[in-house]
Amino acid sequence: MIFNYKCLKYYLFISLISCNLNRDQDTIKNNQNSIMIPVFNQDSAYKNISDQVNFGPRVPGSEEHYKCKNYISKKLSNYCDTLILQDFEAVTFDNKILNSTNIIGSFSPNKAKRILLCAHWDTRPFADQDSINKNKPIIGANDGASGVGVLMEIARQFSILKPKIGVDIIFFDVEDYGQPDDSDLPRVDNSYCLGSQYWSNNPHKRNYFAKYGILLDMVGGEKAVFTQELASVEFAPKVLSKVWLTGIQLGFNDYFSFEKTGLIVDDHLYINNLSKGRVPTINIIEHDKKTKSKFYKHWHTHNDNIENIDRQTLKVVGQTLLHVIYNE
Three-state DSSP class for 48? Predict the structure, then answer.
């Protein structure tokens, strides 16, 4: 069923039976309890992505990376209760030592019941999937900026109306500095996701625990399809089911597919493995069966730019997450 959204200011009214307009604010009614759920603003999320892209490629160690870190940190600090910059040194597959930062914003940090939302904010230093300029860095509008853009808009909504639970938003660094398949160097295991590997071994809070985690990666492609990736199925099947059923209930059937697809090496894999079950985490990531990689068609190419970001896909992901979170 596709619900007809009618919104005033920040909230929408959704009933499982019908939608009605309220003069002052809109609410969602579940089991006779009224829950206010913000309306996700896809234009705001798009602007967040555009702002990041305007810095240029955000390759760790670059000036653009440094400027974007300051931008994200300042903006997130305006919304969250506490901000932590987790600095660390990342050693890459080609033996570079990069000064890196995981950016962590917490809402209601003293609440025991929490969830984790995350994305990566760095971009790939080479376009290894492109046919030209393969050694030049990509702009990473979808692969990197889209997840940050969606979560930044969600953070803005939290600052207006806090959910009942505590939430931590983490933007991981050095996710996309992994070794290319055609590299002449000796193979290095676990060369991707260095920021999430570091955090999983060194959480920002001792003995950190969250009810579950949700990773966003490549969530801005036009008519994206999100399948149920193997690690998400294995580590957090209940969370996966909750999120997908919420998306379907909201009418986003064309985006959330119950098809089971292969394991993806991404930040969630290390959170699940290294956090020893403290944060069962799923990955919302585009699957494209038409491409050789099965990823977003502009993955690791120079066409991963702002022109290929779709506002409706941002809306689908953002609104689904808001419903999941505010119903906790």
Answer: helix
Query: Token pair of 117, please?
Result: 């939302």
Judge contact between 313 and 224, C-beta under 8 A.
yes
Q: How many CA atoms lie within 13 A of 275 on its CB side?
A: 27
**What is the per-residue pLDDT across 94-135, written as a single tens digit (0 to 9) for each?**
999 999 999 999 999 999 999 999 999 999 999 999 999 999
- Which string of DSSP letters, residue by residue, matches 249-280? HTT-TTTEEEEEE----SHHHHHHHHTTTSS-
In angstroms, what CA-CA distances link 309 with 48, 52, 223, 304?
A: 12, 13, 10, 8
pLDDT of 77-87, one tens digit each?
999 999 999 99
- Read off the amino acid at residue 3: F
Strands 14-15 and 28-30: parallel
Measured in degrees and rounded to the nearest 5, phi and psi for residue 12 equal -130, 150
| Verdict on whether the full-model pTM lies above 0.85 | yes
Q: Are strands 114-120 and 212-217 parallel, antiparallel or unpaired?
A: parallel
Q: Element (H or E) spanning 114, and its range? A: strand 114-120
Q: Please name the residues in contact with 109: beta carbons below 8 A apart, sequence gap of 6 or more.
A: 81, 82, 166, 168
Element (H, E) at 125: none
Determine the Cα–Cα distance for residues 249 and 142; give it in Å rounded to an integer.
26
* Separation of alpha carbons 107 and 272, rounded Å: 22
Counting Cα atoms < 13 Å in the Cβ hemisphere of 104 gives: 19
C-beta atoms surrounding 61 within 10 Å: 18
Q: Which residue has the tokens 């967040």?
A: 48
Backbone angles phi, psi at 269, to 5 degrees: -60, -40
Eight-class DSSP state of 13: -
What SS3 class is residue 178?
A: coil
Q: 248, 3 in Cβ contact below 8 A?
A: no
Q: How far apart are CA 253 and CA 222, in angstroms?
A: 15
Could you list the beta-strand ranges (E) of 126-220.
166-172, 212-217
Token code pair at residue 19: 């939608």
